[in-house]
Amino acid sequence: MQQPQHEIRASRTESTVTVYQAYRPQIGGPAARTGRFPATWKRDRMTWIKPSFLWMMYRCGWATKEGQETVLAVEISREGFEWALRNACLSSYKPGVHPDRAAWQRELKGSPTRVQWDPERDLHLRPLPYRSLQLGLSGEAARRYADEWTVAIRDVTPLVHEIHALVRDDDLDSARGLLPREEPYPAAEGLLRSLRP
């Protein structure tokens, strides 16, 4: 069965969604130990969260890129995740979605969340023909993410290294078996209508 081009897929429970981020150990370590982002985590900067584990691996190079050596699985409330989607704007102008470029720029300026759809990745981090959601949080969204929505933070770097080692050994079945299970997210249709290019 063909994957929908723009669909949110995520590890989730009835009340939470797991998103991924990668940080320096000085931020990632304390965050995982305490379950909270430390004071050094800047709430006034845009932060990008990714529901796709493999897209996070592409972005951080299996936790080998400088400043992205610690991969965190951040469990956030579904209520918070959906607030972010309701208050989001596409990060680039799409003629079929926005009446004109000026309208998009106004919407972007007033939105605390940005949505980007990037090609999903396979275990070799090659692009797939369907897209994966990235959410950029700024202002109120970033503050609420850090201080209200976060339920738990886990350091999944050892898992990242284990899966990467299996991929390097060409044991893709074993690597696939360790991947977090990501399922289509049951977002109400209206929630994504203006967020699909």
How does this structure look, described?
Helix 4 links the parallel strand 5 and strand 6 (113-121). Helix 6 (157-168) packs antiparallel against helix 7. The longest helix is centred in the C-terminal third of the chain and has 12 residues, at 157-168. The two termini are 22 Å apart. The chain has helices at 25-34, 53-60, 78-86, 101-110, 140-149, 157-168, 172-178, 189-192; strands at residues 9-12, 16-23, 47-49, 70-77, 88-90, 113-121, 127-137, 150-155, 183-184. It is of the alpha+beta class and 197 residues long. The chain has one domain (9-192). It has a 5-stranded antiparallel β-sheet, sandwiched between helices. A 4-stranded mixed β-sheet has the order 3-7-6-5. It is globular and about 50 Å long.
Q: How would you summarize what this structure contains?
A:
By secondary structure, the chain is of the alpha+beta class.
